[in-house]
Structures are given as C-alpha cells and as structure tokens.
Model the fold of this input.
Amino acid sequence: MLSDGELFWIIENGVRFTGMPAFGGVHRAQDSWNLVLFIRHLPQLTMEERAEMERYNRRGPWKPPWLPALPVPNGEAGPK
Ligand code: HEM
Done:
C-alpha cells in the first residue's frame, strides 16, 4: 500500500518509462493533495456520490455492461 506521500509524488512526477504523466507544474501542489484525499475516499464512495460525479462528467454516465444503470438525481441528464 502506497503512503499518501508516495501517491502525491507519483501524481506530481509521473511514472518513468510508462504513459503516466507528471501533473506537477500544471497545477498547484494543493490540487495533488486533493487528488490523494479523493483517491483515499474512493473505497467509501456512496452511490449518491458516484451518481453526483457522473452528473458532472461531460461524457455522460458510463454504463458498463455488467452493472445496472445508475439512477440519476432528479432525472437530470447532467451538464452538456
Ligand atoms: C500509484 C499511482 C499511479 C500509477 C502507478 C499510475 C500509472 C500509470 C500508467 C502506467 C499509465 C499509462 C497507462 C497506459 O498508457 O496504458 C498512466 C496513465 C495515466 N494516469 Fe496514472 N498512475 C497512477 C496514479 C494516477 C493518478 C492519481 C492520476 C490522476 C487522478 C493519474 C492519471 C493518469 C492519466 C490521466 C493517464 C493517461 C495519460 C495519457 O495517456 O494522456 N494516474 N498512469
């Protein structure tokens, strides 16, 4: 299991010889720490949070063939 600091380092510096880009320099360090917090929260993500995130996804809700379609709050299609 990576530590928060290791995760932060990978986000900032990328992974050498792979397609993983370095995001340091393209945004503030705080944004990388926010990403660490977001990743740590993922195992506890609720269906409501997931549905909310999908509403903000410009590509629309992702419907994998092996999962039933998520209910979208208020029946909105989300931002275009
Ligand atoms: C342990 C942490 C991570 C590892 C080992 C890792 C590794 C990788 C690898 C190997 C790729 C290349 C995949 C491919 O081309 O087939 C990749 C791509 C990518 N990673 Fe990560 N990654 C990590 C964390 C993250 C995080 C936290 C983010 C952002 C939330 C992120 C964003 C991306 C993006 C956007 C790409 C695609 C870049 C492009 O092709 O334009 N990665 N990563």
Q: What stands out?
A: Residues 4-43 form one domain. The CA atoms of residues 2 and 74 lie 38 Å apart. The pocket of protoporphyrin IX containing FE is lined by residues 2, 10-11, 15, 18-21, 35, 39 (CB under 6 Å). The chain has two domains: 4-43, 46-72.
